[in-house]
Amino acid sequence: MVKEILEKEVLTIIKEIFPEADISGVSVDVSDNFGDYATNAAMVLSKRVGKSPRDVAGELIKALEKEKVNLVEKIEVAGPGFINFYIADKFFIDNVAEILKEGHGIGKNEKEKERKVMIEYTDPNPFKVFHIGHLMTNAIGESLARLYEFGGAEVKRANYQGDIGLHVAKALWGMKQTLDEMPKDSATLTEKTAYLGKAYSFGSDAYGDEENTKAQEEIKEINKQIYESSCDKQLRELYDKGRQWSFDHFEVLYKKLGTKFDHYFFESQTFVEGTQLVKDNLKKGTFEKSDGAVIFPGSKYGLHDRVFLNSQGLPTYEAKDLGLTYLKYKTYKADLSLVITASEQTEYFKVIIEAMKQINPDIAKHMAHIGHGMMRATTGKMSSRKGNVITGESIVNNLIEMARKKISIEGINEKEKENIATIIGVAAIKFSILRHQIGKDIVFDPEKSISFEGDSGPYVQYANARAQSILRKAEEKGIELNAKDYTGSVTDIEKILQRFPSVVGRAAREQAPHFMCTYLLELASAFNSFYANTPILNSGDVASYRVALTRAVSQVLKNGLYMLGITAPERM
Fold first, then answer.
1. 189-208 and 166-177 are packed helices; what angle lies between their axes, rounded to 10 degrees?
2. Is the pTM for the entire model greater than 0.90?
3. 292-297: which pairs have CB atoms within 8 A and are 24 or more residues apart?
4. How many CA atoms lie within 13 A of 424 on its CB side?
5. pLDDT tens across 55-96, in order?
6. Which CATH number fits domain 392-438+446-562: 2.30.40.10, 3.40.50.300, 3.40.50.720, 1.10.730.10?
7. What is d(CA 403, CA 452) in angstroms, rounded to the nearest whole number?
8. Strand 263-266's sheet: what is its strand order?
């Protein structure tokens, strides 16, 4: 990785000739003007050593040239004191050959080797719809999991689902009132989950009606019976049926989204652990009683107070999350236990982590939370108050339908076409989410997200499909790939390809998949320009190298998309 090599060389030279500067690190970045890479180290040093930036740059260059860094062809000073590095073409050409050799392994590293990571994400609740927030946390969580895996970490994917609580009680009450509308076991999952959504809405509306005190009391009683496992036979059957319908439906969505979880945790498990933890630590003074409830006094730690057991003695979400944290630790003692939710829960998780810190600091020190922003439509906030309920599932299905209309591949059957449309539709939404910095709100435009020509996931996929088409034709023509014997000049493509491992490392280190998205768009754009302006198959003696370069581009595009949780189809 050129950046890291140059940073190390520059820092070594600085420590040798300017030890009094006490510099611990330098930055070398891709140059937008002259050379391939540049550093402002001389300007940073000048004030510390009492010399002009250009004089400092001159001394550094003289020392660097003596070191004869193999990959550097030329070093020069520019402007007020920038040091520009020109990398030898052979280095970039050799990298193309290395990509072909490594294949799917290109970009893998050992920066996270022997580190155990558990990432909890998606977290949909049975009896309720799979909403936009679940779609966002799924995309982010899956991408981070793959980035950590490429860094050598042992990663476990966890999913936490609320199969107990007031929302379940509302849905069950609604089911009891609409038994004549309940789908038969032979009905489709779509029909079953649509019914559950209707039952939940019915129960939620009734609970929110201040005049319907009878419904409120009945729902509260159902909630209490679930916690106490004292349901009658009918209620238990409704609960088991609705819970299973929801989970079956979620599994269909996970498969479509390309996620497979290692561990499932449920509130019906965590509330037991959480309740006991709160009670045990109430005696120790970690928690306090307040108006019949039990709270954690977060205000003592610069946070805010939160209820962990309500006045009925039932655990709140807080207590259940505490129990979840403990169960995850017992299941898999991770070096990093990461939770991904909407950013509106950031302050909430600060309290959970602080509470666990007071109970067990060894567990708390491994905990971390990432909050993502909100998704908004181009027409404004996605709101259900206007009657336009937009679920995460409906967004995916809509994009798949839009992709289906764009596909024009001859000789494929309907099943293959449906598979490709699904791959493209999923890429459209995932890329739209991941191309933004985590935590930032997203303005979602379905038309732009599915475009084969814009800054989108399908645009990157299409660049790969175009490369694959060239490779198929090259094979038909009998053109062999050869990146070792090429002695010509390189293009921007080789220089972009060389940066891939650095981008992988940065995206994982900073937990920022958007760096990968930006990189892939740059590579796809460079390749499309190359394709449009340069003969590849009919280029005589250099055809073998240009085809090899095309394969290297395809491999890096596929690897990069994989780390975003996106599949790269060979035809579109």
1. 100
2. yes
3. 296/351, 296/354, 296/355
4. 34
5. 999 999 999 998 887 899 999 999 999 999 999 999 999 999
6. 1.10.730.10
7. 10
8. 263-266, 154-161, 116-120, 336-342, 367-372
